[in-house]
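Troubleshooting entry. Yesterday's outputs looked truncated, so today I'm pasting the complete records for two proteins to confirm everything comes through intact. If either block looks cut off, that's the bug. Protein one:
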Amino acid sequence: MDLEKDTYKTIDIAGGDALFKDKGSKFIGYVFPVTSEEEVKLHIDALKKKHHTARHWCYAYRIGVEDMRYRANDDGEPSNSAGQPIYGQILSFDLTNVLVVVVRYFGGTKLGVGGLINAYKTSTKLILEEVIVVEKTIDVYFQIIFEYQHMNKVMRIVKEQSLILLDQKMELNCDFLIAVRKKNAAKIHQLFLDLRCLKIKKVTS
């Protein structure tokens, strides 16, 4: 992802049952928001139970915001005839943190590699056109530790810059966790440093 871009597209709500038919075979598309391989496995296992008489459960996913990783699985179909066409549509829609699974019920007539590529591509396109795509910002997270007497100075920056306060602990010292849009992170970091009354460090979410 280029350095200037600090947004990404994904989905918040799963979609399913997008149906495509060809020569008796049925292809049913599903899409899920995911952020880990563990979630991917859970969704696939659930679909295998739901469609236990199907022949194939082919899928592709893309996970991550800046360091993206992906996988495409043909699940017994000819090499690159299912997983890659599914993944190609994920790229075409410019999505991440998504899993697409296409369940196939074999209709008795072979479609050939070209037919399969078209079927899995079309099924994926149908389901991705049905769901609501959302754009989110890539955020940087800062921990800020300061004495209570400096609360007004800190909160003025939080409010003026419309920062997201994720967590706050107020004991001997105040301990804030804030989210800052990536492109504004350097500026916000400097604003807090200029107060000279706190400690600030970047943390992983």
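Protein two, checking that the full record survives here as well:
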Amino acid sequence: MATRIAAALAAFVSLTVPALAQDPATPAPRTVAVELQTTMGTITVALEVERAPITAGNFLRYVDEQRLDGTVFYRSMILDWEPHPNGLIQGGTQFDPARILPPIAHEPTSVTGLTHGRGALSMARNEPGSANGDFSILLQAQPSMDADPDNPDPLGYAVFGTVVGGMDVVEAIHAAPRDPDKGEGWMKGEMLAQPVIITRAVRAAAE
């Protein structure tokens, strides 16, 4: 009898323990959804408030304090690389003293674990630690923007979210006419002839 009980117990353990081990129940990193309502349509983004707390938190402050309302997408960088369309769009406060907040610390992708994939939101900056209220949205993956000692800019740029709705709007902005005479230096010819207005930036309503 004892042998049969032991065998039954062993069989029970063999069935239940692996099942428990296969269910890690690990929650996904927390994000906050934001709508960028523009004159060409709405772009919905998920901000990585857990994995990139400094950068995502900074962007949320711009949203909550209505500092992005009335700003524009002003730049379309086109890359002639497969797949098409490729490049990025850029928008934000453009160093408007009435809108910008103090610069934030740089959060490289080597720390956050995020990457510059299709639809990634990334902070515009000069040197690391100078980002404030301007950002880019990528049309396709750009690993050269990640933090990597082999990349032209080893510290890379700070990814803080991704587009979860409205990539068609991103692509339409990217395809909008550019003015060949606008812009300075290496950005000359990348400025939109008619910037696209961000009429409102707001946290998305919970479903």
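Both blocks look complete. Sanity check on protein two: Residues 1-23 have pLDDT under 50 and may be disordered.
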